[in-house]
Inverse folding.
């Protein structure tokens, strides 16, 4: 074995420039693939986390028909039995109920349509961290949550309303009852997403239930989980445990466009990496073809001397795997510190990317993932590539005729 | 004692339309300790003949019997092992593994045979000294002259203690001085160690040294003279 390794190793350096170019091409491929996976996974995790936290939760419980008909009439009875079942589900870390509806908001002579969200202030803040967007005033506290509202900054500006002013809301409650009320403004919210600033009004779940005349009812319950990979299992459990008239959805069902977006981008990345490795693969294949042709006579001689073909194959396979291995190792090792650095220090973007991010309501930063998959999958790809390429070499040696190789 | 018996050896190449009878019915015996030259014009079948005797090129028909074994009845893996243990080869040029030093090239064969390190070292020293390269053992082939490379090749061929050595135009790429050196060395090994050499050549000076001259023409033996 030592002899074969020695042979393979020295052959590797026989044509230094060629070996280095081959190694460099693998290195760049691996490096680029790791970088791409890292930035893709990083941004998708970021997007997913943001969207899930802010909108859907990982799991949502709703009334049977609410998904297709978002009316208060499709709300459900949010009782202790249900909350107990949800709380006892081990994968569930946080949960909070919401009432989502509409109302006309008015202050002095201004009137604007608004989305009213009734939330459980403490629980909701653990999930969607609304309080971090407070630009003026304060978030709900136990003493003020009974009757106050938080209002989007743009809506406040449009209405000409400020903190401590009293907002008037008029809407339609549960089963057509009139909803009307006065609410002191506790604080203004400045979200990165302009649409939200223009239309959001938050109040406590209790206030919303009073306002819409729907005691003990909610339109949705949002659940956060510990292990994202076990969402389907958790949903199964919940479906078994709770009232059959309730529906349990995953974030993918609530936000199918998000799932499609992520899958689409991931597929795009895979195609890009696929093409990249294909180009590299053909390059290496070309090198191996050249290498075998150049060495035909030499191979003939060592077979003539009495080296079994299987051993000759081993030398060649070892040699080409050494090239691949060195490329992968250098590529992984050099990308590791870079990706780790970027993971710890996300890049603040500017220009159109910044706008895109802000329009989706995210911080305009590029996040990177340091998931081991990012490193393992390029390595596996290169390994498969080299297996395919050395298969060629093995085939070449298998059909090599000693006598004609010697005449080469 | 007979080392090799060759019976009705034929090789027909079927390249495209034309059929080439490269070797066309050769019957020969070789005794232990022979120093035999195979001569003949270009294309007369010397290489084809030696390759078949050495187990490198399968005959169309006929037998090559080495020490009682019909080598072409062996399975190809067995045949490779048989070559390793019984036949030494010296080719025309670029015989050596370029990435190995002279010492490693000679050692390589013994390594394949599974000889232990001590034995290998001793024999490599002995052989390279015998071919006059005791000083150049650590050089790679590219640092050696053509003649020196051929001498390393002879040392390597001897390393496995073969029954005989086949050499296809071993001096073709050498100048006359190196040719004479190599031949003297081979002759010495032949005389002192009773090693059987069969070599092909175009070179009249090489032919002169041979004690048996087999002439081929058109794949047939036209004369077989022993001196
Ligand atoms: N692989 C092959 N396919 C077809 N014909 C071949 C092949 N190898 C050799 N021949 C033919 O067989 C004949 C004998 O060739 P061989 O190489 O044995 O001659 P040689 O005596 O060694 O010639 P030289 O002195 O030039 O080396 C030639 O006519 C050659 O063209
Ligand atoms: Mg020839």
């Amino acid at each position: 074995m030592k002899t074969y390794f020695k042979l393979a190793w020295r052959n590797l350096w026989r044509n230094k420039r060629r070996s280095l170019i081959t190694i460099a091409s693998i290195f760049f491929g691996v490096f680029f693939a790791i970088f791409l996976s890292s930035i893709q996974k990083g941004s998708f995790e970021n997007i997913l986390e943001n969207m899930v936290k802010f909108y859907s939760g990982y799991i949502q419980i709703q009334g049977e028909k609410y998904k297709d008909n978002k009316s208060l009439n499709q709300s459900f009875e949010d009782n202790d039995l249900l909350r107990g079942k949800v709380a006892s589900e081990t994968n569930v870390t946080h949960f909070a109920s919401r009432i989502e509806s509409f109302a006309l908001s008015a202050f002095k002579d201004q009137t604007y349509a608004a989305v009213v969200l009734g939330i459980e202030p403490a629980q909701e803040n653990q999930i969607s961290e609304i309080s971090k967007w407070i630009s003026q005033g304060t978030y709900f506290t136990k003493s003020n949550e009974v009757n106050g509202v938080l209002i989007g900054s743009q809506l406040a500006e449009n209405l000409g309303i400020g903190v401590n002013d009293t907002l008037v809301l008029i809407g339609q409650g549960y089963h057509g009852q009139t909803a009307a009320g006065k609410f002191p403004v506790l604080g203004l919210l400045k979200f990165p997403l302009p649409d939200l600033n223009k239309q959001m009004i938050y109040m406590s779940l209790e206030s919303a239930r009073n306002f819409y005349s729907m005691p003990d009812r909610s339109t949705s319950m949002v659940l956060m989980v510990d292990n994202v990979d076990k969402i389907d299992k958790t949903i199964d459990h919940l479906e078994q445990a709770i009232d059959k008239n309730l529906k349990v959805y995953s974030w993918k069902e609530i936000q199918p466009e998000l799932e499609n977006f992520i899958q689409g981008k991931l597929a795009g990345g895979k195609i890009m990496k696929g093409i990249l490795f294909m180009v590299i693969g053909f390059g290496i294949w070309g090198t191996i073809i050249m290498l075998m042709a150049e060495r035909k006579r030499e191979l003939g001689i060592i077979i003539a001397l009495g080296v079994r073909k299987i051993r000759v194959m081993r030398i060649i396979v070892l040699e080409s795997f050494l090239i691949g291995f060195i490329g992968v190792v250098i590529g992984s090792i050099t990308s590791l510190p870079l990706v780790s650095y970027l993971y710890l220090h996300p890049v603040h973007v500017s220009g159109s990317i910044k706008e895109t991010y802000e329009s989706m309501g995210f911080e305009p930063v590029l996040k990177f993932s340091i998931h081991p998959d990012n490193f393992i999958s390029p390595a596996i790809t290169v390994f498969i590539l080299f297996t395919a390429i050395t298969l060629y070499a093995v085939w070449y040696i298998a059909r090599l005729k000693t006598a004609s190789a010697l005449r080469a | 004692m007979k080392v090799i018996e060759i019976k009705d050896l034929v090789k027909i190449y079927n390249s495209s339309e034309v059929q080439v009878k490269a070797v066309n019915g050769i019957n020969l015996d070789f005794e232990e300790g022979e120093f035999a030259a195979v001569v003949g014009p270009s294309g007369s079948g010397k290489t084809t003949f030696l390759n078949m005797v050495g187990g490198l090129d399968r005959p169309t028909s006929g037998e090559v019997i080495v020490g009682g074994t019909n080598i072409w009845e062996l399975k190809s893996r067995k045949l490779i092992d048989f070559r390793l243990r019984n036949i030494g080869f010296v080719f025309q040029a670029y015989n050596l593994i370029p990435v190995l030093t002279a010492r490693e090239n000679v050692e390589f064969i013994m390594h394949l045979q599974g000889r232990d390190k001590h034995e290998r070292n001793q024999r490599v020293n002995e052989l390279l000294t015998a071919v006059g390269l005791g000083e150049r053992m650590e050089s790679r082939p590219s640092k050696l002259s053509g003649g020196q490379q051929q001498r390393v090749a002879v040392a390597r061929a001897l390393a496995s203690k073969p029954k005989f050595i086949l050499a296809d135009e071993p001096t073709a790429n050498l100048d006359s001085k190196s040719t004479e050196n190599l031949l003297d060395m081979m002759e010495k090994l032949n005389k002192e160690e009773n090693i059987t050499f069969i070599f092909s050549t175009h070179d009249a000076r090489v032919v002169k040294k041979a004690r048996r001259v087999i002439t081929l023409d058109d794949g047939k033996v036209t004369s077989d003279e022993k001196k």
Chain B touches chain A through 26 residues (CB under 8 Å). The mean pLDDT of chain B is 91. The CA atoms of residues 44 and 217 of chain B lie 5 Å apart.
